[in-house]
Amino acid sequence: MKNKIRLSLLLGTALLMGSCSLNYDPISDYSELTFGNETGGTGNKYETKAEMQQQYDNIYKSIQNAQESWYMDMLVFAETHADNAYSGATDAELVSLESNKQDATNKNIERDWTSFLGYIVSANRVICNVDSVPDKTLTDAERKQWKAEASIWRAWVLFDMTRLWGEVPVVTQETPNITATNVKEMYPILFPARNSVEDVYKQIISDLQYGLQYAPKADATNKFKLTQSVAKTLLAKVYAEAPVRDYAKVIEYCESIKKDGFSLVANYSDLFSVNDTKTDVNYRNTSESIFEVIYPLGSGSWVTWMFGIDQCDPSSTYNWAKWITPSRDLIQAYENEGDNVRMNEAIVWAKPSWSIHYPSDHYPFMYKTRSRYNSILKFRLADVLLLEAEAYTAQGNLTAAADLVDQIRVRAKLAKLDASVKSSKDNMVNAVLKERRLELAFEGQRWFDLVRTGKVYEVMNTLNSRDSGRKKMATFTENSLLMPVPQTQIDSNPNLTQNKGY
């Protein structure tokens, strides 16, 4: 009887692992449980090209539907948990992240861990099955391309996970059918332990190298595609991280991206603006965009309502407390730099009927996602140029670094860097970091920039004295650099361990 109960629990866990992305981000009427052959025919899970096409398409549908975990919550981690934003709303999950008092019971952190593993499941369905589809109309080139795009997606999710939690499970295979005779063999698959950070990065790099080989080239008409340029951008970011840091490779991949046909848009506002009639955005797929999640007319993203109002909806109002409220410290940084161009695209002022962080008659809101039709910009060229400047600075090539920063500053109608900055490595480190803050505010970069450059303690442990509107923050230590592993996951998986400090 005990064996039957144990097997039932294992089967239940296997079902969760195979379908958890559908629990949190519904992507279609089909799943691997209702679409695809488990026992008949050749014994392959997917018999036809159409069946595998469904799983391939589901990757992009899951990305479009990942607005809560992969976009909104990532902004909380990157902006609110850093110095760019306050929580906005008063939810305990948000306030704890603003004040650096998060713990393993935080429901938002829990949903993100689960959702991210679900995204990996959707990638694995393609990676693990596309080569075995017997339908000969699915060409070898298509198999390699679909597998490459799925590999880039898996690598991206793993990259975000390891930056948040450090050691994470590396799941690269689907859960097979479980029987009474193979339960012990399946146990490590059903309850994976956390892999070392070094091993996680090995898998990320391996996936991206495959993607670089077989993914499609950049398409100027469709930036919602996991292309070779996306793989290069991820590789540049990966090699900037401490476990595998190699600044020569960062520069190599950044240079390669620049050769793929991308260029800065002339006007910064073109990245975010809506048209004069407020019926649609002005631009999608700009020359600067490397990867964006597109929501065209007839579609739309709901997350804009969480940050402010929908500029394309006349009935939209500031009728509840919004997330990602711009901080006084960020506003002061823009004002100190005289950076009106970028501040006016990042922040809009309004008069809500309520007051939490500011007086209600002059209240700032995050403005970069200002309508349901705005793309979610994940990677763009300015980010790449400034990352390359960071790498050049680390190598001591301050002239090359300053030239890249100046390209960004000139577009923002600011003066080029002063000679005193260009002549000092320490000054250039700070200049690049400041430029990334002003250029990429509310694009999910700030916290990770601080961690990568070793500036967390210097910046965050002095914030209480600089920002009068900030919730009193707990002191940041080496145990504060990672998020806690959700306690519910540890309770259900005895092979998981908790990060230090939680």
UniProtKB/TrEMBL annotation:
Keyword field: Cell outer membrane, Membrane, Signal
One of the record's GO cellular component terms: cell outer membrane
Residues in SusD-like N-terminal domain copies: 47-239
Source organism superkingdom: Bacteria
PROSITE patterns linked to this entry: PROKAR_LIPOPROTEIN (PS51257)
Pfam families assigned: SusD-like_3, SusD_RagB
Entry's localization field: Cell outer membrane
RagB/SusD domain ranges (all copies): 373-502
Matching InterPro entries: SusD-like_N (IPR033985), SusD_RagB_dom (IPR012944), TPR-like_helical_dom_sf (IPR011990)
Keyword Membrane: yes
Record protein name field: Starch-binding associating with outer membrane
Organism: Bacteroides luti
